Structures are given as structure tokens and as C-alpha cells.
Records
---
Amino acid sequence: MHRFQLRTTLCYGPDALEELSRLSGRRVFIVTDGFISKAPLMSRVRDQLGDAAIEVFDDVQPDPDIDAVVAGLRAYNAFDPQAVLAIGGGSAIDTAKAVRKMAIEQAVRPEASFFILPTTSGTGSEVSSYAVVTDTKTHTKLPLESPDMVADVAILDPEAVRTAPARLTADSGMDAISHAIEAYVGKHHNDFSDALAEKSLRLANQYLVRSFCDGDDMVAREHQHTAATMAGIAFDNSSLGIVHGLSHSIGGIFRVAHGRLNGILLPHVIAFNAGELSFMPAELTPTARRYAALASALGLTASNQRNLVLALSEWVKKIRQNLEMPASITQAGVDRSEYLSRIPEIAETAVGDYCTAGNPVPVTSRELTAILTAIV
Ligand SMILES: [Fe+2]
């Protein structure tokens, strides 16, 4: 038996923010960052919340650590909310998830309902049961997974992403693409996750570069926002793989945006998982066939299945180029010699990453070292 979990209500499209009016009159604990708490979006949120009692915890930092979660929990307990509203990208959402989960574990008060308003199109965190918190002592990213971290309501209002800078649009968009591709070939892929991953990629193909080039293109913003959430549902019900395993491990040491790392890794991981394309036997591996099927679903054409896999890899590279993203770790600003010296440590951590376990092909730290060396 398999399970495909549907729990979060998706409110989407222009004016989706109006859903927040349901929280009028309640005690609402908002988790966000210092920038968003002063942005015009917050005034719109307050307008919708009407006469709700509001407490804003806006001390969220990029790549939230355990200390930030503990500080959030302290503020949460002092306020005693009936609802939690996360507003932001992955960092704010993951902080809110971790804070709410810890509060539930304390079991002191009734569970607060959970609303998420993403301001980027990429993490899929608004529909996933995962959060990532950094352990600053060990420089590792700690994965948390729990049904308690699934939102009751995700509000996908394109206006909330309109002001996202182009760089952030590119990074988060490439993250969404990597979610869709990894979910499609992931160990636990299924017909439901396949359908969402395919549609997500087709939408990204049409709308990601458009929303990067013109942030005010609200048609593109709306569809790319949908694409990111679809990819989130897909990976939450399938699995991720070594793009994420490696990206988490590199990102724990070097401050490079998660989606940017994924974009660097993706073509190399496709080649590895497909069985190293240059040496690929006449008979494709099952994973290579999956990549070829995804390429077809995306509308790519080629003379044979092997070339379809290559076409998918080339498609990623083309999107990456159009988004003006780096193709290597040094292009992303990481010092070459420092990176090379830390590859053994990065590979070791990545082997044990929870996403690595979902990769369609088993990996050793030696194989991950080869990929890590190839992206220099
Ligand atoms: Fe991701």
C-alpha cells in the first residue's frame, strides 16, 4: 500500500490573501524576517487580519539555526497564539514550522492552526512536511520531518512574490525545477507525484524566465508560483535525491543560495544517475528511462532515448544560462582551494543526508566526491 497525503488547503490566484480574513478576532503569531515585517505586504496582511491580536516575530535569519528556533518558541509561548502565520521564503517558513512543532511537543496548550504565505516561488515548504534547521556547531543542516509541520492553509497570492528580486526569482525557480526532476526519478515516485512534477516543469519552462526578466509580469508570477507548489507536493510524496543531499552539505559550509547550488549540480547528477551518458549501454537504465520520459513530457525531442536524457540536461543548462546563474562552484564565488580541501567532509555528510536516501541510484562517498570535483 502507498499513501499520497492531501492536507493543505491551497488558496491561490490574485486576492488569495483575503483568506486571512478568517483569522480576524483571533490571536495570530506571525513569523517573518525584518525586511518583510516593514514591507507593504505586511500592511495588506494586517488589513486582512482585521481585529486579530497580532504578535510579530521578525528575527528570522537566512538558513535558520537552532538558536533562532528557541527564540521563536519563547516569543510563541509568551503570546499563546491560536494561529501561526509564516510569511516569507524557506527560512521564515522553516522557522515557523520548527517553532510550532516544538510548541506542540510541549503539549501545554491547544494546537494553533497553521497558515503559510510564501513570498518566493521555489521551496515548496508551504506544502511539505519538512524543514531544515542549521546546527551552527557542526555546520550541518538538520532535516526535520513531521506531520505537525504541514500547513493547514497555503496562500499562493502572486502579489506576495511581485517584489522578489530577479536573483531570488532565479534561485528559487531553479530550486523548484530540481524538486520536480528529483521527485520524478526519486525512489518513491508514483503516478500522482509524476503528474505534478511534469506539469510543474512545463509551467516553469513557460514562465520562470519570464518572471525573472519582468517581475511585474503577473501572469508569469502566478503560474510560476503554482509550479513551485506543485513541485513541493510532488517531492513531499515522492523523494528527493543527491542534488539535495549534496546541496545541503555544501550549503552547510559555504554560503551559496540553495537553488543556485542545485542548478550547478543538476546536469552532473542527471549524468551520474542515468549511468554516465558517455558510457551508457545500448539498453538504458530504469532511471535513464525516467529522465527520457520527463524530457518527452516537457516537449523535448531527440533521435533516441539516450539523446532525450541529454536533451533534459541541456534544457536545465539553457534555463540556468537564461537566468544568469553560475555553472560551477567557483563561478558561484566559492574559493577553489578551500572548496577542494573540504570535499571529503562534504561527501561524507552528503552520504548521510536524508535526501540522499531517496536517490534512485545508491551512492558511495567516492562517487559523490567525483561529482563534487566535477562542479569546481
Ligand atoms: Fe530544495
---
Amino acid sequence: MGDRQRDALERLWPVYGVPVTEEVLDPVAIFGRSLPLVLEIGSGMGDATADMAAADPDRGYLAVDVHTPGIANLLALTEARGLTNVRVVLGDALDVVRHQLAPGSLDAVHVFFPDPWPKARHHKRRLIQPRHLELLRSRLVPGGTLHCATDSADYAEAMLETLRADPELTNVHDGYAPRPAYRPLTKFEERGVLAGRDVFDLIFTRGS
Ligand SMILES: C[S@@+](CC[C@H](N)C(=O)[O-])C[C@H]1O[C@@H](n2cnc3c(N)ncnc32)[C@H](O)[C@@H]1O
């Protein structure tokens, strides 16, 4: 980590950081007010998270990543941009979802460019797969949105199959979605686009 990130972590974690525990989070306690919640899994360097939160001040953005420099960067961006609707968690998103988020508590779940794990023997490490999907979907409010994006054609196909197979999820589009205006290009995506890779968005809602 650079000095800026080290400083951000030290100074800003107490302000915007949410510890990993086994207790269900009270959104009002963490944001200081009642807001519909957006969970972002794997926020990376956090630039896209900060942009989305700035454009959407009436929802609370809870960004989770295991990568300390990325979390530190998002803390710095949150302060620099004066965002009051961002909180960050440094930890495994599935643990956070399982223990700290109540069923029916999320307005949206964003999974942007999750690690693709391209080798078949590593597919079991992928975030979007049937055994995790039921958990993620259960945390959405009725009508809530699960939005995934990837630049791995193979992962996109597997995601589409998995999401379509869930009887409680409805595809908002027919197949892949065009990138909605609210999703900025992410850092990781920029590299893929430069390398000539296609990007696939998938937007599903939980039935009411
Ligand atoms: C390929 S990067 C994409 C980051 C960002 N969304 C972007 O598009 O620039 C995937 C991110 O997911 C994070 N990640 C992987 N497994 C995770 C987990 N179990 N919980 C939270 N974050 C995770 C990684 O640390 C990494 O920052």
C-alpha cells in the first residue's frame, strides 16, 4: 500500500469501516439513517462504487472486498468526495452475506467482474454458482435486483444458465443486458475492453 492508502485505512476505517462479525447489521446504525441498501461484492479499487454512490445518494452502498489496498482506496475516495452513503467491509463477501445481512434486506446486489477462475477445476471457486445464488437471492427484498457483469464469455454463459434456473429470479432483459447508464466502467473492465474482450451484463430481479 502507498502512503495515501495506509493513511486512509488508519484514519478512515473508524469512520466508514464495518467490522466482520457474526451479528446481523443494523443499516440505520451503520449509515445513521434509514436507506435502501446496495451490496457490492468485490469492489476492487472502489472507483465505480464511489461514482455509483455519488449518483445515487438515497441508497446506502456497502462495499465488500478482501483486498486491503482497494478498500483503503475506497475509504480515501469516500472522504475526498464527501460521500455519506458508503460503508466498507474488509472480508469474505459470502461470510458477510451469510451472517451479517438479514434475509430480504438488500435493494440490490452488484457483482462486477468477479474473479473468473477460468480453469474448469477452479470453477467451484466462482462466486456465481448455484450453491451461492440461493443465499444471495434470499437477501434481496422482493423486487430487488441482482446485477452481475463479467468479461469472461465462459463465465457469462454459466452465470446466465445459473440465474435463469432460479425459479425466484426474473431476467429483466432477454439474455444479456446492455450496460445500464448507472454502471460506470470499472477499473478491471477498462483493461478487458482495451484487450478487446466483450462485456456481459446480467440483470435479474427477485419476484415479489
Ligand atoms: C477482478 S476484480 C474486480 C474488481 C472490481 N469490481 C472492478 O471491476 O474493477 C475481483 C475483486 O473481487 C474481490 N474478491 C474476490 N473474492 C472475494 C470474496 N470472497 N469476497 C470479497 N471480495 C472478493 C477481489 O479481491 C477483487 O478485488
